[in-house]
Design goal:
alpha/beta; 15 helices; six-stranded parallel beta sheet; 463 residues; nine-stranded mixed beta sheet
Length: 463
Amino acid sequence: MTKPVSPATPTIPPESAASPWTRRYFVKTATSVLAPMMAAGCATTGAAKPGPVTGPVAPTLPPDTRPLKLGWIGCGGRGSGAIVQALTADPNTTLHAMADAFGDRLDKSWNAVNASMGDAAAQRVQVPEERRFIGMDGYQKVIDSGVDVVVLTSYPHFYPKHLRAAVEAGKHVFVEKPVAVDGPGVRSVLESAALAEKKGLRVMVGFCWRYHDGMRAFFDQVNGGAMGDVLSVHTTYHAGTLPRHPRKPEWSDLEFQMRNWWHFHWLSGDHIVEQAVHSIDRLSWAIGDRQPLRVTCLGGRAARSGPEHGNGFDHFSAIYEYEGGLRAHHTCRQIDGCPKDNTDYLQGTKGSAICTGFSNKFDIIDRAGKPLWSYGGRTDRNMYQNEHNELFAAIRTGRALNALPRGARSTLTAIMARMAAYTGETVTWEQAMASLEDLTPPSYEFGPLPTPPVAIPGQTKFV
């Protein structure tokens, strides 16, 4: 097995309103990560071709007062919510085009959005039959239909490709998390981030907890030193099994896997990447958005069987190591009948903290158990709505907004843990960034597609 290229560790910068990083950062990343692979004849991604980014970074744009047309790619439950939130965020927007691989999903979402918009649907939801695109090429038809903003809520595997197409066409973007499922996808997203910066586009990533009022206040306190230096972090995402859809006779292998996409790692990244990445993102947030040096991760498949469960694991336990000796922990599982937990536990030199977003519990206490800080702010705002409000405010005011670099970092932090669990190896940041593991299937034709094998730690090899 050829060992991956190990360039100098690239540092993904945080999201910044001023966005001064892109040109310098992209050149460094392209030189240290992409160029050696290209010289070795390795494709950087099976989802989107890399391209050079040249010229000066675009200045902050003037306010945009035009009516904005929205394009929606990837229908379904979360997608329906996201598009309604996008329409709610700005009254001078209309839904102009939509696409999905499957007609029944598109029709169901069309009806759901119209019902949610109520009396305003006739004016705000303007998608005639000729702009409702069904099939794997529908994303490009939406982008080419004259839209201004693209909402990407498809399967994570496709985000790098769809994102690249939208950014190349000069569209502002909302893209759900995770932004990729493998190293090549992350590298493609970073290229799109640089191109978006150059073009002055606004891009939001759906790490919704970053837009939760209580969570923001809590991590402002943590990063500001309220509990002293952070000594340890443990984040959890212990949940039940996500839906499974028994195969219908008319479904091809590809359709069956896409209908059960949570359970196939090429589509979702496995649940540590698709779902628990929220908690891994908060783990990074707690320590100032640093990237890990390496990760060791245990994982397996203890309670899953049957074809609908694909090839995903049902539990992971990761230990991340950082500069200065900090070790941070993350555990997640999707097993029915077990206790649920979605809490962040932090220890610092001055005290400890517990963060539970779903119940708005944010407390920092000292070593004696006395309160150092408790959240007393707003609890009435919806974090999903907040992220769209901020995206459209940035578009309207001309304020710079590019959440892709941070979104790519958190996504890769989750991907490297999956890699470590699948192989049984300790995986470094450099290895994950340079990995040649491309999960793209041989074809997107609706035909035969064998289920990928379940990984066996100690036998599955790192690519």
